[in-house]
Amino acid sequence: MSKLAEVAVCAALLLSALPNTPTARAEGPGPAIIQGPPPGWEIVKITDDPEQDRRVAMNNVGQIVFSKRAIPNPGGTREEIYLYDNGKLRKLTDDILADQSPDINDAGVIVWIKKEPGTNEHEVMRYIDGMIEQLTDDLLDQFGPSIGNDGTIIWPTRFEFGWAELFRYVEGKTTQITSNGLSNQCVTINASGDYAWVRYEFNLSPWVSTIMCSINGEVHETSDGTTQAQGCGINDAGTTVWHDDAGVLMRANGMISVLPNSFNGRGPRINNAGDVLYGLSLGDFGSGMLFKDGQTYQLINSPEQAAAGFDLSDSGEAALGMGVFPEIDIALLWRIRDPGDFTGDGIVDRFDFESMQNCMSNVECGVQMPPVCLNVFDLDLDGDIDFRDFALFQRLVTPAIN
Predict the structure, then answer these.
(1) How far, in Å, CA of 285 to CA of 282, rounded?
(2) CB of 65 within 8 A of CB of 321?
(3) CA–CA distance, 278 with 273 (Å, rounded to integer)
(4) Please, what is the Cα angle at 287 between 368 and 27, to 5 degrees?
(5) Of 339, 336, 241, 325, which is closest to residue 290 (Cα–Cα)?
(6) What is the pLDDT of residues 46-84, one digit of tens each?
(7) How high is the mean pLDDT of the chain?
């Protein structure tokens, strides 16, 4: 994500995060929930198969990473990492291991964990410059890695039940960055290397947790530690989001507010525009909910499309896991495109042609063509993309302006 916060904003955030800072919670139902995506937006599918696609993450340059679990898959021992890149779908791993919980930065560097069969040992893996490398090699349980745009990677390591500490990898060196004997989990990094996480106290009954935040190297308690706060997210301005029994909460400039209509909301993510994406239980199914410009949109309205994981970019696009368990597909919320305009910039040019080539290359690589490709490039509406579509595409190319 691009750096949006100026030095003055960071300084103000640091002051606001100091102990004893007054906070307030804005309550109330707010405006009525709108069914469906915002005007001018639509949901299109990236995958469409009987397997289980999960743990989705996306960056700001049109790339989406997720893991795919075959069905049936006794014990969940086989799971692979896939990368969707502007029309092209690639399988990055192909082994007998469980490759899980991927994350991706704007440079296209991907991290995930690999589980060794028959053990609780998980290792941190990285995909960079077309190569896969293993960053940890021990008998411990690593999980949930997050990567920043500068390449910094942070992950929790579980030592025993109720005890997990955070570790950070920078330029080939790994260091432990928490040491409190509690359970530190769910870490998220922003573009400037600030990060938020959840510190659980499972030694208490009932257990409680605190949303923690590290800004410019200074660690602060973002929530008050009296609730079961979970699901942290942070943007470049240092605004944090999480959920507890009150709903989805946001802390900005020292003030805590509850998003309207967010009771039972879970796992929020926030982008640099201030959009918040979270999951909401709706009885028989769950929906992805988007809070944008003061309005809440229910993106899914049927059990056949129930949400199962999500992420969003600074442009407002969102990646969603959708389907009926165990069959889950990856979908993309994006602005409605005109025929041939895959990039959505209002013109049809060489960048759209590159995406068309990406779409056509999937079949050559033995990978199913993402349905989103057909939405834009199946110009003769015959269910495929071929030279007839290319001929029609040429007629749509925007004339050059001298």
Answers:
(1) 5
(2) no
(3) 15
(4) 150
(5) 241
(6) 999 989 998 999 999 999 999 998 877 666 668 999 999
(7) 88
Largest CA distance in the chain: 71
Q: How far is CA 162 from CA 181, 199, 201, in A?
A: 8, 10, 7
DSSP state of 204: S
Tell me the C-alpha to C-alpha distance, in Å, between residue 163 and each of 180, 198, 287. 9, 12, 32
Contact 169, 157 (CB under 8 A): no
Contact of 258 with 232, CB cutoff 8 Å: no
If we measure between CA atoms, which residue out of 91, 103, 121, 54 comes closest to residue 321?
Answer: 54
The residue to which tokens 């893991």 are assigned: 67
**CA-closest candidate to residue 284, choices 267, 261, 307:** 307
Helix spans in 17-157 (H): none
Tell me, what's the pLDDT at 12? 33
Q: Are strands 34-35 and 295-298 parallel, antiparallel or unpaired?
A: parallel
The gap between the terminal CA atoms of the chain, to the nearest Å, is 34
Report the SS3 class of residue 134.
strand
pLDDT at 269 over 80: yes
- From the list 299, 254, 256, 293, the residue with the least C-alpha distance to 280 is 299
- For the segment 113-169, what is each residue's pLDDT rounded down to a tens digit? 998 777 778 999 999 999 999 999 988 899 999 999 999 999 999 998 899 999 999
Block residue for tokens 């071929």: 386
Q: Which domains does the chain have, with CATH numbers?
A: 7-333 (2.130.10.120), 350-396 (no CATH)
Residue 264's Cβ-side half-sphere holds a number of Cα atoms within 13 Å equal to: 8
Tokens 């500490």 sit at which residue? 165
